[in-house]
Automatic annotation (TrEMBL), chain A:
Organism annotation: Actinoallomurus spadix
Uppermost EC category: translocase
Official protein name in the record: NADH-quinone oxidoreductase subunit A
Primary subcellular site in the record, as a coarse category: membrane
Reaction catalysis annotation: a quinone + NADH + 5 H(+)(in) = a quinol + NAD(+) + 4 H(+)(out)
From TrEMBL, chain B:
Protein name per its UniProtKB record: NADH-quinone oxidoreductase subunit H
Entry's EC annotation: 7.1.1.-
Keywords: Cell membrane, Membrane, NAD, Quinone, Translocase, Transmembrane, Transmembrane helix, Ubiquinone
Disordered: annotated segments: 405-448
Record lineage: Bacteria, Bacillati, Actinomycetota, Actinomycetes, Streptosporangiales
Encoding gene per record: nuoH
Automatic annotation (TrEMBL), chain C:
Source species of the chain: Actinoallomurus spadix
Major place of residence: membrane
Name of the protein: NADH-quinone oxidoreductase subunit N
Catalytic activity: a quinone + NADH + 5 H(+)(in) = a quinol + NAD(+) + 4 H(+)(out)
HAMAP family: NDH1_NuoN_1 (MF_00445)
Protein function: NDH-1 shuttles electrons from NADH, via FMN and iron-sulfur (Fe-S) centers, to quinones in the respiratory chain. The immediate electron acceptor for the enzyme in this species is believed to be a menaquinone. Couples the redox reaction to proton translocation (for every two electrons transferred, four hydrogen ions are translocated across the cytoplasmic membrane), and thus conserves the redox energy in a proton gradient.
Keyword field: Cell membrane, Membrane, NAD, Quinone, Translocase, Transmembrane, Transmembrane helix, Transport
Gene: nuoN
Length: 119, 448, 520
């Protein structure tokens, strides 16, 4: 039996439950039309008109996403390395230290240029 | 307790993939029901415990000790109107709660509950599934879960929800890096990504001899790799999006964050996802750092059967409930951090510390593998750490004293109509409790 | 299905010959040092430090390349077969390093204005912030590490012995260039447009390259060039997977060298990019790209040459003709040189098509000769300036020969070299390439080459006539003199002359480099 089958079974169960709940929610509740209730919630004031597609996000978030990719790739390299570490001897250590140091150089640059600041 | 005995009952990757269909179905159903029940009990327990900590009883009407409160809340949620505001992106709006809830549950499938037991004549491990890359599954599912939060915020077409969704995504991906890095040392020691084998690897510490006695190093990675454990605890808080890191839904500023526009059962799905995530994070921590389902040391000392049969489930539940209590306790005890503090902790503290720790651990392990003496390295590393701590402390002090005059200037120059919009003053006497006699009284009134 | 286990016990420890890879490692290491300089050094000292790091890195890498070349006969694969270190590769790498050093003279130039690059890349063109940063005299010193990263990629590209390494090198070389293209100090919108075009088309061609790699992997079961060659000779060459893979891979490679019909990016990018960077791209990138083409077609696909030759014939003919004919209508100097570069790409392809030792050695020689000439020519362009920066439009160059005979004369000399007039390196290069192509039986190609050379000569001569035989403009451009740029011009002119008058030593060097062909 494939190792992944149980995961798929649980996933199907969870998906069924979530989809069922969301669909059920629109039947079980009462329906009373109210114009104000259909507006976006903004503490009672007139809602701000939202640009189509959500508009533009602050560039900070893009930067965070890019940095995430950099470090996530580092992690992806680190996992197999860590698992096989005992079989590779000093070579594995030296190579990975070089790799981590290279990423740290970029990290230092980003830090010094304020890429990690939130204000 | 003999070595072979333990190995016989502990599961390895070999034990998986042999279950018949009905056992798979049964196990999946048990995990699913367990998660739902855990959520109900956790919600109730949280309200009771926080109530106690705040010197009030908490829910105590529905059922004995109010234990049915969460269930009734759920039923009430289903009977509330399901509001779909105008202007939302309908498909994504419906999809988001599903994306948040379903993956959260899948993560639990790789968590080991116990060793091999016999169900209906079949030898089967007490764990739904295990993979050669099992630990990646919770990480992957956490990433998919983020889609739920982001899409919820985005599809709502509401500024609060959008901000909440963005914050949530930035926060979760920031803390996921540190979380991923905190696992590396564990994999370094266990040599595998399979959860059951990581638990097995924590069964015994390596033996060493001191003064003629054979002793064992601590077997739990929480002790052996304490920095990793501490980093994981931080990231666990960050990933779960709970106090003190609950900025995506900080009600003081964002109403309810990404699920502001959700109601009825769709809202319940987000609620469910949060608590399931909490349970999963606790279970993952138990598995990776606290020896999983294995009984803690003093028990095994006088009771050799503690790790056999169905008993491990008990240890496992005790351990994850410890973490759940810890989550609740923190919520009662800590205030919320600011967003910049949150990101600073994630990017400027946890990541470099993790990387430094990985470098240290790998150097020590490599030298030990090559049979070198690691004593001097330890001393050098200790000195470096102390120096770094002092340096960063001084740095903080210097930069803080540099920043202060600027802040004072900015406050003095603040324009009450900045950019054409009225802005409240950054600093006013009543912020410090001066000149407003009513504030303490009204606080009293609300508490009563 | 039985569970799959990681065979942790039998991971062979790879061995990496750091000594043989040192030129690349030095350049990339210098780039990392440059990043650290950016992070840690105070703003005032960054320029000096960066130039120092870049020049030292390039010189050290060049010295090491020379040492590798004159040491034992270099014919090795390094890093588990991922990189080939052999005669042609070292020749190409050495050429790239020298040309990069010459371009560095232009990039680091700060006599004409604070820098050829924008003061602060993040400011919007025309915004008050931009003006402020200009007034403050800011300089974007990230340029230097970016250039070094690009050069590092260029060094790996022709050396890559498997397609994945080649792809990584392609990206390492391209990504900094995309960015650098958008950093011109003047006409920033044009520059940013060039960067976006280059990026989009480049990303597109990278995808082609990757698809081709995937298909060749599907065919041969390996991305190693030698194993692809072995698979071709074993299984025959009419597999659809193989032919489609070769076609897609060729698209990716030909795009990088700007061969027609994939030349569309070249004029826009060359015109929009800062001229100092255009010099780098027109010389080093072209050398690296042709080096990569050579390796793929000589090592990986040599046994398939009867299948790809017709296609490459068409490409070469089209490239030569498009480059030469469209150039006639150009009114911008940099655009004109861009089309000239396209045409030269076509001439180079005739050498590639020969697939013999003479073809290889003549292509190597041509690359070096063309590289020096083109850096020199772009260096002259940076010197001829108006109030608004470089005088790009050809009409502004009218009568320059009467006011600045030396500068105009040097430029005319470079143009004659492009045209392939005897006593210039261009002539020797073309002669060698055509000779090799004829030996390889590509007579029609040679005829087209000669014809398009004649067409090209027309517009080169037109510029010379414009400079020397028309009246100078009243408000014509001035020539801004500076030692660094003048050095670049002088070196370019000197090498162009020497390779034209006494080409034997250089030809001999290229022959001995090509003698062993590429290592497999």
């Amino acid at each position: 039996m494939n190792l992944y089958v149980p995961i798929v079974v649980l996933g199907a169960l969870a998906l069924l439950f979530a989809v069922g709940s969301v669909i059920m929610g629109s039947f079980t509740g009462p329906k009373r039309w109210n114009r104000a209730r259909l507006e976006a919630y903004e503490c009672g004031i007139e809602p701000t008109p939202q640009p189509v597609g959500g508009g533009r996000f602050p560039v900070k978030y893009y930067l965070t996403a890019m940095l995430f990719i950099v470090f996530d790739i580092e992690i992806i390299f680190l996992y197999p390395w860590a698992v096989a570490f005992d079989h590779m001897g000093l070579f594995g250590l030296v190579e990975m230290v070089l790799f981590i140091v290279t990423v740290l150089i970029a990290y230092a640059y980003v830090w010094r240029r304020g890429g990690l600041e939130w204000d | 307790m003999s070595e072979t005995h333990v190995l016989a009952e502990g599961a390895t990757l070999n034990s998986f993939g042999h279950d018949p269909w009905w056992i798979i179905g049964l196990k999946a159903l048990v995990v699913f029901v367990f998660l739902l029940l855990t959520v109900l009990i956790t919600v109730w327990a949280e309200r009771r415990i926080i109530g106690r900590m705040q010197l009030r009883p908490g829910p105590n009407r529905a059922g004995p000790f109010g234990i049915l409160q969460a269930l009734f809340d759920g039923i009430k949620g289903a009977l509330k109107e399901d509001i779909v505001p105008r202007g939302v992106d309908k498909v994504v709006f419906f999809l988001a709660p599903i994306l948040a809830a379903a993956p959260a549950m899948v993560s639990f499938s790789v968590i080991p509950w116990g060793g091999v037991v016999s169900i209906g004549g079949h030898k089967t491990p007490l764990q739904l599934a295990d993979l050669p890359v099992a630990v990646l599954l919770p990480l992957a599912m956490a990433s998919i879960g983020v889609y739920g939060f982001v899409l919820a915020g985005w599809s709502s077409m509401s500024p609060y929800a959008l901000l909440g969704g963005l914050r949530s995504s930035a926060q979760v991906i920031s803390y996921e890096i540190a979380m991923g890095l905190s696992f590396v040392a564990v994999f370094l020691f266990s040599g595998t990504l399979s959860t059951s084998e990581i638990v097995a690897a924590q069964a015994h510490g390596t033996a060493f001899k001191v003064a003629g006695m054979t002793l064992h190093t601590p077997s739990w990675y929480a002790v052996l790799l304490l920095p990793s454990f501490i980093i994981y605890i931080f990231t666990m808080m960050g990933e779960s999006g709970r106090i003190p890191f609950d900025l995506p839904e900080g009600e003081g500023e964002l109403v309810a964050g990404y699920h502001t526009e959700y109601s009825s059962l769709k809202f319940m799905m987000f609620y469910l996802a949060e608590y399931v995530n909490m349970t999963t994070l606790s279970a993952l921590c138990t598995t990776l750092f606290l020896g999983g389902y294995r009984a803690p040391w003093p028990i095994t000392w006088f009771w050799s059967g503690a790790n056999s049969g169905w008993w491990p489930v008990l240890w496992f539940l005790i351990k994850i409930w410890m973490f759940t209590f810890f989550f609740i306790w923190l919520r009662a005890a800590l205030p919320r951090v600011r967003y910049d503090q949150l990101m600073k902790l994630g990017w400027k503290v946890l990541i470099p510390v993790s990387l430094g720790w990985i470098l240290f651990v790998s150097v020590v392990r490599a030298l030990r593998n090559e049979h070198h003496d690691v004593g001097p390295i330890m001393i050098v590393a200790a000195i470096i750490v102390v120096l770094l701590l002092i340096a960063s402390f001084l740095w903080e002090r210097v930069s803080a004293s540099e920043a202060q005059p600027e802040e004072a200037e900015a406050a003095a120059e603040q324009d009450p109509m900045a950019g054409g919009f009225p802005v409240p003053p950054l600093d006013a006497p009543h912020y410090h409790g001066v000149g407003n006699g009513r504030a303490p009284n009204s606080a009293e009134a609300t508490r009563a | 299905m039985t569970p799959v286990y990681m065979a942790a016990g039998d991971i062979p420890t790879p061995h990496i010959e750091y000594g043989r890879l040192a030129p690349v490692l030095i350049v990339l290491g210098a780039a990392c040092v440059g990043v650290l300089v950016e992070a840690l050094a105070p703003r005032a000292q960054r320029y000096g430090l960066q130039v120092l790091v870049s020049v030292v890195g390039l010189v050290a890498a060049f010295a090491w390349t020379i040492a590798l070349g004159i040491g034992d006969q270099p014919h090795h694969v390094a890093a588990m077969g991922a990189v080939g270190v052999d005669g042609p590769t070292l020749f190409i790498q050495g050429t790239i390093l020298v040309l990069a050093l010459m371009s560095m003279l232009l990039i680091a130039e700060r006599r004409h204005e604070d820098s050829p690059f924008t003061a602060q890349a993040s400011t919007v063109p025309g915004s008050p912030e931009e003006r402020e940063s200009l007034v403050a005299g800011l300089v974007q010193t990230e340029i230097y590490p970016l250039v070094l990263f690009a050069v590092g990629g260029m060094l790996i590209f022709p050396a890559a012995n498997d397609l994945l390494t080649m792809f990584v090198a392609l990206e390492v070389m391209s990504l900094p260039l995309y960015l650098l293209c958008g950093l011109a100090r003047r006409r920033r919108l044009l520059s940013q447009e060039a960067a976006v075009k280059y990026f989009l088309l480049g990303a597109f061609s990278s995808a082609f390259f990757l698809y081709g790699t995937a298909m060749l992997y599907g065919f041969a079961g390996s991305v190693r060039l030698s194993e692809i060659a072995a698979a071709i000779s074993k299984q025959g060459g009419d597999e659809p997977l193989l032919l489609a893979g070769v076609a897609l891979l060729s698209v990716g490679l030909l795009f990088k060298m700007g061969a027609a019909p994939f030349q569309a990016w070249k004029p826009d990018v060359y015109q929009g990019a800062p001229t100092a960077l255009t010099a780098l791209m027109a010389s080093c990138t072209l050398v690296a790209a042709v080096g990569g083409v050579l390796r793929v077609f000589y090592v990986g696909l040599e046994t398939l040459r009867w299948d790809w030759r017709p296609m490459m014939w068409a490409v070469a003919i089209l490239t030569m003709l498009v480059g030469a004919i469209v150039a006639i209508t150009q009114t911008d100097v940099k655009r004109m040189l861009a089309y000239s570069s396209i045409a030269h790409g076509g001439f180079l392809l005739t050498g590639v098509i020969a697939t013999n030792k003479a073809g290889l050695s003549s292509t190597l020689f041509y690359l070096a000769a063309y590289g020096f000439t083109t850096v020199g020519a772009f260096a002259v362009i940076t010197m001829v300036r108006d109030a608004g920066g470089e005088a790009g439009h050809l009409s502004r160059w009218a009568g320059l020969g009467k006011r600045q005979p030396l500068v105009a004369g040097t430029f005319a000399f470079f143009l004659l070299a492009f045209a392939g007039i005897p006593l210039t390196s261009g002539f020797t290069g073309k002669f060698a390439v055509f000779q090799a192509a004829m030996a390889g039986g590509a007579m029609p190609l040679v005829i087209v080459g000669v014809v398009s050379s004649a067409i090209a000569a027309f517009f080169y001569v037109r510029v010379i006539v414009l400079m020397f035989f028309s009246e100078p403009l009243a408000d014509g451009p001035t020539v801004s003199f500076s030692p660094a740029t003048a050095t670049a011009v002088a070196v370019g002119a000197f090498v162009t002359l020497v390779l034209g008058v006494i080409p034997a030593p250089a030809l001999h060097l290229a022959q001995s480099a090509a003698n062993q062909l590429f290592v497999r």
